[in-house]
Design brief:
The protein is mainly beta and 759 residues long. It has six domains: 202 residues; 145 residues, Jelly Rolls, CATH 2.60.120; 97 residues, no CATH class; 67 residues; 77 residues, Immunoglobulins (Immunoglobulin-like, Sandwich); 76 residues, Immunoglobulin-like. The protein is built from three helices and 60 strands. Strands 11, 12, 13, 14, 16, 17, 18, 19, 20, 23 and 24 form an eleven-stranded antiparallel beta sheet that branches. Strands 1, 2, 3, 25, 27, 30, 32 and 33 form an eight-stranded antiparallel beta sheet that branches. The protein has an eight-stranded antiparallel beta sheet with strand order 6-7-8-9-10-15-22-21. The longest helix is centred in the middle third of the chain and has 7 residues. The two termini are 92 Å apart.
Length: 759
């Protein structure tokens, strides 16, 4: 169900729930212990919206809430108001931003939050606007220098006449004459209308510390001081930034009820939400979000807490905290906990709404040990409790489906049909909803009821429709190559109709009209395919020819050795899967090939530039492109190539030429590159050790037309040979110095010198 466009059933909306349906039968219901909707001024039940919107007189306001939250500003200060100033309170009265006028460039705004950079030197203020709540964070970006034991943040508070702001004596304690716990706002009737939760300090490594409060009056004004231990902030192991996080909540949070401790009696450790599975909906998922809270000042840690869930069907596994943060106080969160298994079978489909409870059980892991009580049951003095006013309320999201076809479609086999074949078969698949299902189709007289529930969920089933195409046959039309087949009608036992079915299509084979688009061109001696056109592309060809060729669309190696194109007439006959046949006549033009050729200056000497010049001709056209390759590497696309070969050897040089019709010819030649000169040896050792055993002249193989003469020190000729091949080893002479003359007869060169024979 990705990218589902949900639509809410407004008539099912309550303060604590909303129900949605998707376009393809998707179902989703949200149930929460905290209101997600509220009554507006018109007494209409509408969703709570925390998105901040601009106001000319209030700066920004989230007004789609039971008690709107405002962000005020003037030239030098800002203020936050939760609800109207007449019934709740304003925070930050006369607060300056770094003793300067409020500079809007210092404020980073997102959908429902502000970050005020350097509101206090090296400290940012982060303001989150929530459902009837404000998260008022101080962000410390570095260590704080102060002579006091505490880092103090002061905020002026304005409350309505007759209201009182005081510590919550049921939830906290004194520490060094300061308050560790929550602050509560009471109206003149002593009813709690708002809370300021105990500030929690969280560093970048998720290490936590509770902060303190001090409430005092100064010059008739109410001042709230938030105190943080300096030594904890400035610890060498502290990771910045540090977030100081008090949460300010309004009446709708209070409506959700008090905290649920794990330290009373077993039946007090249970909270529940009544949820509803609507008629003709199959449950496919149940996701739960919740939390438990370890009291900082009580000695409790997260690892002490245990939470599990039950339904009318049974229980799920417990949820505990393990890992590096398990032994710290604070809030442990649960998100997207899957309760599907106990729900699938015990909350079966029905044609009426079914309501049942999702229960949350909270306990202490250690309680029960050596007491005879189950683990997590009973009373203890270390507080682990459900936190009803946190950002993670006890919430349940049900997911389900109304009747749907597999893959949200119905299937007609995509087998091509002859225009006069009117029989069609379709396959309809259905699941979810409540079985049995009734199948019908506008092209069929069949009405069938199939399927049954299997005890856990509605049993899936399918049915094959045999239908007749209305107004058959359908004749050839190039714009009409497929038939749209409407979907069937499928309803479940509750009368709920299957959604998301769309028409399917069947390919239609019209009369084939075989024809060519004109004269077809090919090159001499090429294989070529004769292109055809028809009403449809898959016309089968049964005969081809020009009197000599076989029955195939491919013609092989038709040669044109003349200097002009030649014209050959062909015919083709076709049949469409035995439905219809047609015949067409057309011509083929065979172009002669170009004749590739090139020249160069010979011999080629290493290190000396050489030019290769194209000499290709085309008898009936002109050469349009060239492609030179040396040993399979492209070296030029011009009609010539210039190069310097630095290494003697033999190279393979080819050139491809293409004429204006795309006809190609290729010529290749082995190119010998000769060295600039022969290298002369200075010693041989005829001892058969494989080293210098012969009188060898390097590069001599490039000059087979040579003559070698060798003299001893007395001027006697000891060896003479024409066409010497580096094969004399001096075994027939004694050690000593010898003189030689080597003549290169091709280049009219003479090489001479002395060499030593060592044995």
């Amino acid at each position: 169900m990705n990218h589902v466009l949900w639509k809410e059933k407004v008539n099912k909306r309550t303060l604590y729930s909303s129900t949605y349906y998707g376009p393809n039968g998707e179902f989703k219901a949200i149930h929460s212990k905290r209101p997600i909707n509220y009554y507006n001024e018109k007494k209409e039940l509408v969703p709570i919206d925390i998105l901040l919107k601009p106001q000319p007189d209030k700066f920004w306001v989230a007004y789609d809430q039971p008690n709107p939250t405002y962000f005020f500003k003037n030239t030098a200060a800002y203020a936050l108001t939760l609800g109207s100033s007449e019934n709740l309170f304003t925070l930050g009265v006369n607060s300056k931003i770094d003793n300067e006028n409020l500079d809007l460039s210092n404020i980073v705004k997102e959908n429902n939050s502000f970050i005020i950079k350097n509101a206090i030197p090296s400290v940012d203020k982060e303001l989150y606007f929530l459902e009837d709540a404000i998260k008022f964070n101080y962000i410390l970006n570095q260590k704080v220098v102060t002579s006091n034991s505490y880092i103090v943040f002061s905020e002026e508070v304005k409350i309505p006449n007759g209201y009182t702001l005081e510590p919550d004596f049921d939830f906290g304690k004194k520490d060094n004459n300061f308050w560790m716990g929550d602050l509560i706002l009471k109206n003149p009737n002593k009813k709690i209308v708002s809370k300021i939760k105990m500030p929690i300090c969280i560093d970048a490594n998720k290490e936590t510390l509770p902060g303190l409060y001090n409430v005092k009056k100064k010059n008739g004004k109410i001042i709230i001081e938030i105190l943080i231990e300096k030594n904890w902030v400035n610890d060498v192991n502290r990771a910045f930034p540090i977030i100081v996080d008090p949460l300010i909540v309004g009446p709708s949070y209070i409506w959700a009820g008090p905290n649920m401790p794990s330290c009373v009696m077993n039946n007090h450790n249970v909270d529940s939400i009544l949820v509803t599975r609507p008629a003709s909906v199959t449950l496919t998922g149940c996701h739960v979000t919740s939390n438990f809270y370890a009291m900082f000042f009580s000695g409790a840690v997260k690892a002490d807490g245990s939470m599990f869930f039950s339904t009318d069907c049974g229980t799920t596994q417990a949820f505990n905290i393990v890992g590096p943060n398990a032994n710290t106080a604070g809030t442990a969160y649960l998100d997207s906990f899957q309760l599907m298994n106990p729900l699938t079978c015990c909350i079966p489909e029905s044609c009426s709404d079914t309501s049942f409870y999702i229960r949350k059980h909270l306990g202490r892991l250690s309680i029960g040990t050596n007491t005879g009580l189950p683990l997590g049951v009973g009373c203890n003095t270390t507080y682990i409790m459900h936190d009803a006013i946190s950002l993670w309320p006890f919430k349940v999201v049900l997911f389900g489906r109304t009747p749907e076809s597999y893959g949200n479609e119905w299937v007609v086999p995509p087998i091509p049909k002859c225009a006069n074949d009117c029989a069609v078969t379709g396959y309809a698949y259905v699941r979810y909803g409540v079985a049995p299902y009734t199948f019908s189709h506008p092209w069929s007289t069949q009405v069938v009821t199939l399927g049954q529930n299997n005890g856990c969920s509605s049993g899936a089933t399918n049915f094959n429709f045999d239908m007749t195409i209305p107004n058959c046959p359908i004749y050839c039309d190039t714009s009409y190559t497929e038939l749209s087949v409407p979907p069937p009608q499928i309803i479940d036992a509750c009368g709920t109709q299957l959604l998301a079915l769309v028409p399917d299509t069947v390919p239609i084979k019209p009369v084939p009209q075989i024809f060519s688009s004109g004269d077809t061109l090919s090159c001499s001696q090429d294989d070529y395919i004769i292109p055809l056109e028809s009403c449809i592309s898959n016309t089968a060809i049964t005969s081809w020819g020009n009197g000599t060729n076989g029955q195939d669309t491919i013609f092989d190696n038709i040669e044109n050795n003349s200097s002009a194109p030649i014209l050959i007439d062909y015919y083709a006959s076709g049949i469409l899967d035995g439905c219809y046949s047609d015949t067409a006549n057309f011509s083929m033009i065979i172009q002669p090939l170009p004749q590739a050729s090139f020249t160069y200056s010979s011999p080629i000497i290493s290190g000396v530039p050489v030019s290769f010049i194209d000499q290709s001709i085309d008898p009936a056209s002109f050469i349009q492109s060239w492609h030179w390759q040396l040993d399979d590497s492209t070296v030029s696309v011009m009609d010539y190539w210039e190069n310097i070969f630095n290494i003697p050897g033999t190279y393979n040089l080819c050139v491809d030429v293409v004429n204006e019709f795309g006809c190609l010819d290729t010529v290749c030649e082995l190119i010998d590159v000769f060295p600039a000169e022969i290298k002369v040896p200075n010693i041989i050792s005829s001892n058969d050790d494989g080293v210098n055993d012969f009188l060898e002249f390097e590069f001599l193989q490039f000059y087979p037309n040579n003559e070698l003469t060798i003299w001893n020190r007395w001027g006697n000729v000891v060896y003479k040979k024409s066409g010497y091949q580096n094969d004399w080893n001096g075994n027939d002479v004694s050690e000593g110095t010898y003189f030689f003359i080597l003549k290169n007869l091709d280049k009219n060169e003479t090489h001479s010198g002395f060499f030593q024979i060592v044995k």
